[in-house]
Write a structure and sequence with these properties.
about 475 residues; globular
Length: about 475
């Protein structure tokens, strides 16, 4: 069930209404209702087969968590201390982690690592996010930083429908305590208004901006050999904007939906394209993934505690894992490696880089991010190199009208009818509008998280949101799936 559909909006409204009514009787009953709704959402979207695979993984996590938290009973010697030896606890964590990583590897990477000799059907919906979330849970339980309570619902944590498909990746401390908060399934009017604002903003990002930028990007990749330099740069910048608006739009809808249910999701984006370094970019982009990799991979490897050489190796390892997590292909590995090398270079450059003007540091970072995204989007390494060659060695001419065809098609037709003199320029004008609006959203001083926190439902804001919601809903037909749902 896609977020950008009337089916989802109806599902969200019905689920919220039922949970509100149940919460008025018993909060635990309401939590059960939300859990059932989340399971149904996943089954409808992922199918029974995918659901059963993840249910087995959830059972593994539950058993491991119970084993890791077992304590010596009161009255016995050493009461309150772990009942299992450190070696047994480490073995339990390793086996449970191996299960989750193995399932992910079999479904997602079997074809890649065997050269296509072994190929399974598509992996279960949201498997990459599910796997990292379960690993994070077990790591926190193992270290003693988190302890599951009797009424903490693991199925709700794993299948909470706003996050089940594409995250954010939930650290257990960011989710379970909220289930005991007085606002859980009983949000106040301010939270409801903020949630509706985020849902509307997220839909507009996805439907009106990202998907129309995708028309330019997809057309460019389909006619790669014919691109001039301006065409290539339009495609490169278009994908940089498309990917951010697509994924952050999803996260906005997820955060807004959670807010309607009295829950707050962790911030996953914080204006990443305003970053002044590759390191800062990853503190602002996909923040929950960065947090997981830092706490569950980088720190256990030794972090920056074992000298510069080991630090650089650890950084490269983390980003190669990040690249592979995003997709089973050399393009993703190269993309991850490029970001790892960029962070290593910044470490070696040191404080001398900080002496550069902020504008230069931003330009270097934004240029690098654009170049790296080429490999992320490319179907092959040769395709990525071909696009980069066109960008730097292609001829100079006005961007091809072919790239602009299909951008806001209904709006372009209406513009041609209302203002016939502008009909030949409708595609160009609407493309400029889309790119201008996208750049404005990307670099706006306040991101959606800040807007939600300060949102006041005054008349003019409600009118603007109603117009955006109507425009987005009318544009649902033909909308592409969220990019990150493929990962």
């Amino acid at each position: 069930m896609s977020f950008q559909s009337l089916d989802f909006l109806a599902f969200l409204a019905i689920t919220a209404g039922l949970c509100y009514a149940a919460a008025g009787l018993d909060r635990h009953l309401a939590a059960v209702c939300l859990t059932i709704a989340s399971l149904l959402f996943y089954i409808v979207g992922g199918g029974w087969g995918a659901f059963l695979v993840l249910i087995v993984g959830l059972a593994v996590s539950a058993a491991a968590a119970r084993y890791l938290t077992a304590e010596i009973p009161a009255g016995g010697r050493g009461a309150g201390k772990p009942a299992k030896s450190p070696a047994c606890r480490r073995c339990c964590l390793a086996c449970a982690s191996a299960w989750h990583i193995g399932i992910l590897a079999v479904f997602k990477y079997a074809s890649f690592f065997t050269g296509g000799r072994i190929s399974l059907s598509s992996p279960p919906l949201g498997l990459s996010f599910f796997t990292f979330q379960q690993l994070w849970l077990m790591k926190e339980v193992y270290t003693g930083d988190f302890r599951l309570g009797r009424r903490d619902s693991l199925p709700l944590y794993a299948f909470f429908f706003p996050t089940a498909v594409s995250g954010p990746i939930l650290k257990p401390q960011a989710f379970f305590p909220q289930l005991h908060n007085e606002k859980f399934l009983q949000p106040d009017s301010r939270d409801v208004a903020a949630g509706l604002c985020a849902i509307t903003g997220g839909m507009a990002k996805k439907v009106l901006l990202s998907d129309n930028l995708g028309v330019v990007v997809n057309t460019g990749w389909e006619h790669l050999a014919e691109l001039s330099a301006p065409d290539a740069w339009l495609v490169i910048l278009g994908y940089t904007l498309q990917l951010y608006l697509d994924f952050s739009g999803y996260c906005d809808i997820a955060a807004g939906s959670a807010r309607l249910l009295g829950l707050r999701l962790p911030v996953n984006f914080n204006s990443p394209y305003r970053s002044l370094s590759a390191g800062e970019f990853w503190r602002r982009w996909h923040i929950t993934l960065t947090g997981f990799l830092r706490e569950c991979v980088y720190v256990p490897l030794g972090g920056s505690r074992r000298g510069m050489n080991r630090t650089c190796i650890n950084i490269l390892t983390v980003f190669l894992i990040s690249g592979l997590w995003h997709g089973a292909g050399w393009t993703f590995i190269v993309w991850g490696g490029l970001h790892g090398l960029a962070q290593v270079a910044e470490r070696l450059w040191g404080k001398r880089r900080d002496r550069l003007p902020a504008s230069i540091r931003w330009l270097l970072t934004f240029f690098f991010v654009n170049m790296a995204w080429v490999f992320f989007r490319a179907p092959s390494l040769s395709g990525a190199l071909a696009l980069l060659k066109a960008a730097f060695a292609g001829g100079l001419c006005f961007p091809s009208s072919r790239l602009l065809n299909g951008v806001l098609p209904n709006e372009a037709a209406a513009l041609g009818i209302l203002l016939p003199a502008l009909e030949p320029w409708a595609g160009l004008l609407l493309t400029l509008l889309i790119f201008g609006a996208a750049l404005t959203v990307v670099f706006w001083p306040r991101n959606m998280t800040e807007i939600m926190e300060r949102f006041e439902p005054v008349s003019w804001r409600c009118a603007v949101l109603a117009a955006l919601a109507a425009w987005s809903i009318l544009s649902f037909t033909g909308v592409e799936t969220f990019i990150y749902s493929n990962f």
